[in-house]
Amino acid sequence: MAIGWAEIFCQFLVGISRSMILFIVCAGLSFILGVLRVPNIAHGSLYMIGAFATFSISKMIGGTYGFWVALALAPLLVVVVSLIAERLLFCHLYQREHLMLILFTFSVSLILGDLVKIVWGAEYRSVSPPEILKGSISLLGASVPRYNLFLIIIGPLVGIALWLFTTRTKIGKISRAAAVDREMVGVLGINVSWVFSFAFLVGCYLAGIGGALVAPTVSITLGMDHTLIIEAFLIVIIGGLGNMWGALVGSLIFGVTHSFGVLFWPQFAIVFPYMSVVIVLLLRPRGLLKSVW
Amino acid sequence: MGDKRKPSNAVWILGIIFLFLIFIPPFAPRFFTYILGLIFVTSLVAMSLNLVVGFGGMFQFHHGVFYGVSAYATALVLTKTSLATWIGFMAGPIVATLTGLIIGWFCVRLTRLYFGMLQISLGSLLWAIVFRWYSFTGGDDGIHGIRMPSLLMSLNNSYYFILAIFILSLLLMYKILKSPFGNTLQAIRDNPQRCEAVGINVRRYQLLGILIATFFAGVAGVLFVILERSVFADLLFWVLSLEILIMCLLGGWFTFFGPILGTAIIISLRTFVGKYTEYWTLILGIILILVIFFLPEGVMGYVQEVLKPKMKEVKQEEKGIDASSGIGF
Amino acid sequence: MLRVESVFKSFDEFMAVNGANLQVEKGEIVAVIGPNGAGKTTLFNLITGLLKPDRGRIIFKEEDITPLPPYEICRKGITRSFQIVNIFPRLTVFGNVQVAVLSHQRRSSNLFRSAERIAVKETREILETVGLLDKENLVAGSLSHGDQKILEIAIALGNEPELLILDEPTAGMSPEETQKTMELIKRLAKMRELTILFCEHDMEIVFSIAQRIMVMRHGRTIIQGTPEEVRSHPEVQEAYLGEEYARG
């Protein structure tokens, strides 16, 4: 094998940076699953909308700040879209059983997918990262793209923010309580519908951030929601439903096995993460960490 | 049991539809024949799925894998080997059932959402392999131009072959659903815990249900190859599996013919609405949401409800009698 | 016939069954009584294999059935009805009972015969015994609560058990229905030579039909004996029955 340490290290970091995007998206998906018990397939579409919105906003603003403005605004646009969907549709269906919810959210994702097609068309789009994040940095003999390092920093920050939100703020604590015991929250005299709505938006916001962050690293196109959402679901399941740290562990497993796959057997790179998911599920069908269910 | 007149009514209707389907190809345009064939093939997958979802209550989320695996098995035997065609046709259902045995064996240990997610992960693994193994499966290009024996060369002949196998499969599935096993499967759907308590090994019966369903999905896979002469990796992608699930939902979970209706609606929508607008999935999504909100038992389920108002009244009456007379010994 | 030997079961911190002992002889009607939360249902779940005990053994006909899964315990000859209605709501009344009969005859996996023609006689016989024959074609979910409880018993009979366990068979029934159900149970015991183990809240019923009674409290067996012995046991009087029942 002619693969040196530098390459392995570089690929490892790239894998982790990819994991961070997965983590942000999956934390949102897992949060919604935990609090609302809704397996939201439309989460992938929201991620896609986040990416497309980043493209449009950064192009509109242009210049050095374009990307940063987009990073701030695109997730908010996603929140607006999901607020409409939540009030219009989701909030009436929270009590339905899972099979129905999966088909329902799939239908929503069909609608959102076509809306994206109407707004942005079917072409491939790309976003270039801001000047400061272009190029690579040499690190321990490996040349690592700056943008990937940026992702490695951002991922934990978002994780910490979510952790602070769920443990330190009142609404976050209530959401966590609702994840464990719904009736309890209702008994406390808290408007459960409002809590659910808020939790849903938090989860969708994370999908939007994920979409915005992924924009400079991939070509943005229709169908990117389909590949992402299936990965996200598997990550959430192997991590433990509704468990944020589980989402982190799952994302790392998924991202790192993929990047090593790229290194050692590129043709079958995408097989490796699925293989790892299958192995985890066969050993621990209910996930690695404790599920809130 | 009981009323023997009603089924014969249904038999008449089915007979007329059957005759109609036989006489279509010579008169209808080629494209129309092809679409009908596609509806038969896809509704066979949907019905086989409904066996385990609607009648078995299992979260079979990745049924498309068995359909796809069978199509690939057939295609590979026909293109890579010089074996007889009928061996290729046999290979499909056999490989699908074996895949069902392996995947199902793991899945029946779990319940509901976990069952479904494990199946999606195992299925996605297969998809990823098929998707990337260019030298064997053709990767994302798929396999095209599969040769058929001369008897199945023309579209009309393929159509008749598909129709025959389709109807045969329907009869078999109907028979199975009406058998003791079918009853037991529905009992497991309604209440697995109680089934254990009356001496039924629930997991074994669920696995048997999966084997039967995957077998018929396998049959559909072969028919797909006969109709399309090609296979592609999207057959194993999860989106197709969910589409099939949606066909069952749209037509009606708890009805036998519901999935055919659901498939027909979706395929015609894609073909005929797709001609006028490229945004047909938007329309499909809206229809589905309306169904989920207003007809949770599907179109066929709703029709059955409407057609049986008398039955309901009878029920009410009997309930009344029952309350006054108590338990008659 | 059935021996429960110092069985323990806890859920997290809570000791649901804390050293229960029980003996049932062939042909007996035995009642388990005790206040709410005494662990009666848990005990029944342990006997029928829905739960596995932490410690202790359950012996049926000189065979240790503790490790067996529920369906095998059922095949050994123990079936049960449930406290909360636990039927097959989308099947017909006939179908509900037939599922059990088919399972008993080991014909559930028959794929190609029509179920309409199998085990019809046996199923109808059971429905006739319990008085649901006139409703055999109704969907079980549409029955009244009282009828659903009776259907519970009918399903349990489908397996032709030797030991029939009934978990509060009359819960939620009107007094009239309760009366009829108890008569049915007595009749069943005689007709089918059944051994019956049941639990019940209504003390009058218990003392009128049970030949022996086991009293549970906090998951523990206080006493098992004849109605007279139970009535006169000081701890039972003080803990559970109260003055009214002590006088009889």
Short summary of the structure?
The complex is a heterotrimer of chains A (293), B (329) and C (248). Chain A is an all-alpha fold and 293 residues long.
Number of helices of chain C: 9
Specify Rg of chain C, calculated over alpha carbons: 18 Å
Q: What portion of the residues of chain C fall into strands of 2 or more residues? A: 15-25%
CATH superfamily of the largest domain in chain C: P-loop containing nucleotide triphosphate hydrolases
Q: Within the CATH hierarchy, at the fold level, what is the topology of the largest domain in chain C?
A: Rossmann fold
- Please trace the helix and strand order of chain A, writing H or E for each element: HHHHEEHHHHHHH
Number of domains of chain C: 2
What share of residues of chain A is helical?
over 70%
When the domains of chain A are counted, the total is 1
Q: What is the averaged pLDDT score of chain C?
A: 85
Residue ranges of chain A: pLDDT <50 for 5 or more in a row? Answer: none
Largest interface: B-C, 39 and 62 residues
Helical stretch tally of chain A = 11
What distance separates the N and C termini of chain A?
46 Å
Which shape of chain A, going by the Cα principal axes?
A: globular
Shape of chain C: globular
Give the total of beta strands of chain A. 2
Spatial extent as radius of gyration of chain A: 19 Å
Keywords:
heterotrimer; B: 329 residues; mainly alpha; ABC transporter involved in vitamin B12 uptake, BtuC; globular; disordered N terminus; C: 248 residues; alpha/beta; Rossmann fold; 2 domains; six-stranded mixed beta sheet; 10 strands
